[in-house]
Amino acid sequence: MKRGVHKPPEPDDPLCCCEYVDRKGGRNHVAACCCDCEDLDDACDRWLKREAQKPDSLSRVVDSVSDRLRVPWIQGAKRVDLSLLPPLVLLPVLLRIAALHILLGVVVLTALPGLVLWYYYFTHRKKGRTLFFLSLALFSLGYMYYLFITEIVPSGDVTSTQLATVTMGVILTLVSLVHTKRGPGYVKPRLSETHSTVTYHSPLPDKDSSHLNGTRHQVVIANRGTAVLEHKTSDGAVEEVPSGQMGSKKKSWCPWCRTVRPPRAGHCRICSACIQRLDHHCVWINSCVGRANHRSFLMTLLLFLLTSLYGISLVLRTVCPRQNVLIALLYCPGVYSQYSSALCFTCAWYSSIVTGGMLHLLVLQLINVSYNVTEREARLALRDKTGRTLLWGLIIDTGVYSQSFRHNWAEFLTMADNNDPSERSPPAFTELV
């Protein structure tokens, strides 16, 4: 049977809300999600004939399904990431199962963080982008607020002022998150520093056998008209030194972005971009934390922690009115006598676990800012054994940029946002995700 070939879209024929360009470059429609799926047909044929599957059959089927799972949108259907769906389904189911009995609650609340950590290390090892953690964070916040409105507020123990405080905390957290997602501060290439001609004085780079201090080197002709000697550093970047100036200050050349990186900038392999003053790639916001959004990132953490702690205290005062708030989380007799109170108590424990993880992240960030060191610099210092560790590794002082506590915080709070608004338009709703 001859399969139909999808034609690429014409320039003068725009896509409608239900059409899209698939991963093979052809024009497709959301209603044809089950038509002409060659990868799925091939896998099914091999299964019915009891033949061995190809090594990449499963990955090709998953790619086809994820490519065809779309929703209608303006100027073409938008792709729905499959990693968005598990938190939306599993979180309510697991929490409601945990509320059935105290033993089920212990098992679920112990296994859930373990599964999340396992998935984090699995995706981190592959260096791939995923919306799972952002979806889990947003849905956890929304689902906890939904249960607070439907289960706690009707009991009459929450005043209108307390409800307004929790609501305002959720809104401010989301607003701060949107501001954080606007961009970490990308390194923009400069034409004056971009190499124009590369000249190799021996074999090609993949066959180069000469070394400079144990590293590969090559001579490059730059736009400045000067010869530049390059060698590869430990983090994959290339440092360049003008010919005859080996003792001068080095500049970091990114071989992936093909641009000169300013001091303290780094390349993120997940985002495939160089970030100014790169701290780390945060999976919870699906974005890097850099010079432009580091302060708003800390503000998002702080707002979330304050809102979560206040909401947990209100829930525990409602379901365990006779106990102290600190004791109620560990000992609340009779809380499993009613399913509604058990569900709220289970969600309070889940929120406490998430809050503890976010509090640990905030403490590490505050310590790093106090010592004027980024998370990336701390990891490199530990790997190269060039930093000084204190308090069992909680504090890592590289001694490169740190001056004094007051000066470090003043530099962090006043560092300029070098993003040019004229070059980067405000992101759309889908780009923020």
Automatic annotation (TrEMBL):
Pfam families in UniProt: DHHC
GO biological process: protein targeting to membrane
Topology in membrane: Multi-pass membrane protein
Domain notes: The DHHC domain is required for palmitoyltransferase activity.
UniProt source species: Alosa alosa
PANTHER family: PALMITOYLTRANSFERASE ZDHHC23, ZINC FINGER DHHC DOMAIN CONTAINING PROTEIN
Protein name as it appears in the record: Palmitoyltransferase
EC number: 2.3.1.225
Family: Belongs to the DHHC palmitoyltransferase family.
Phylogenetic placement of the source organism: Eukaryota, Metazoa, Chordata, Craniata, Vertebrata
Parts of the chain that traverse the membrane: 93-119, 131-149, 161-180, 297-319, 339-364
Subcellular location, record wording: Golgi apparatus, trans-Golgi network membrane
Principal localisation: Golgi
Catalytic activity: L-cysteinyl-[protein] + hexadecanoyl-CoA = S-hexadecanoyl-L-cysteinyl-[protein] + CoA
